[in-house]
Amino acid sequence: QVQLQESGPGLVKPSQTLSLTCTVSGGSISSGGYYWNWIRQHPGKGLEWIGNIYYSGGSYYNPSLKSRATISVDTSKNYFSLKLSSVTAADTAVYYCARVRRPGYFDYWGQGTLVTVSS
Amino acid sequence: EIVLTQSPGTLSLSPGEGATLSCRASQSVSSSYLAWYQQKPGQPPRLLIYGASSRATGIPDRFSGSGSGTDFTLTISRLEPEDFAVYYCHQYGSSPYTFGQGTKLEIK
Description:
The structure holds 2 protein chains of 2 kinds. By secondary structure, chain A is mainly beta. Chain A has strands at residues 3-7, 11-12, 18-25, 34-41, 47-53, 59-61, 69-74, 79-84, 93-101, 105-109, 113-117.
């Protein structure tokens, strides 16, 4: 059973960079056929896809983030990470990591972590 | 990007009744790459349906999906107490992936 777990600071100051890690257990990130994703949910709102990465390093992003997001992967430690630069209060959200089973639906999710942007 | 519009916003029903949730896309969803998720408070979304009509592993057969092109439906027959939650549709036919705004299914 694949499990994903987000970790990182729960509070980030405006204009700084948000950094989160998703540790994958019960399966290898290097197994083909899956993309590893970040999705966020603003408080009381719907879901927004941030981007994803393949184990070989190819990544894709939602243009709405205006190039502020960077996703990386460490196959040796079986985790992937998100960096979101120049954050504002509008980036306050629950951030989820999730696995996409090709062609593209999310079959496993982490529990989510709330990140608040505030001084 | 493809915009997904779900209706109704809120659906009030009683256990034992049937529910019909709609998801309309702003343009055709290729290959019926449309999924449905259920989300309860404090939990991540749970995959119910993928490929418009295929049930995910462990999902009861009272959940069914249908549709193609721009119009998709999630049907829940004989509502159980645990089915009251928020439901999201999601298209993965074109980038960026997008989600509907959700339908809240509440107990009447």
